[in-house]
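Chain A, query sequence.
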Amino acid sequence: MIQRIQTIYLFISVIFLLFVACNDCIRFFNAETVDVCSYSVMDFPVTMTIHIIIMLLTFGSIFLYKKRVCQMRVIALAIILILLNSATVAVYVAMDNFDGYKISITWATFLSVGSLLMDFLAIKAIGVDEAKIRSLNRLR
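Chain A, predicted structure.
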């Protein structure tokens, strides 16, 4: 399990998701009133629930190493949920009225993109493993 590169990719993805959950994703600054407002994934119940499900799916997929096709499907579901969660946060932020504020995107937002990248790399590595196993079965 640990010797496979996709396990490392998935573990890094879980760590990235934990950092996203613990830090602010977007900050708003107002230069006139020196007011700062920040948003985190954990600020809203819907995004918090989706983010916890994403972390559990990604971590749980590490232990599905014997069922590669199922593992790829679970990771694909996690990718879809990451995109849905990002869109939900964007909608929540867009619904608030922040006229005169400047937006600052923090590094935690880019970790969400890094988590997506790690999940894509894991799916690719799992596909390579599945192709190797199928080619070995044809040789028998």
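The chain has four helices and three strands. The longest helix spans residues 107-139.
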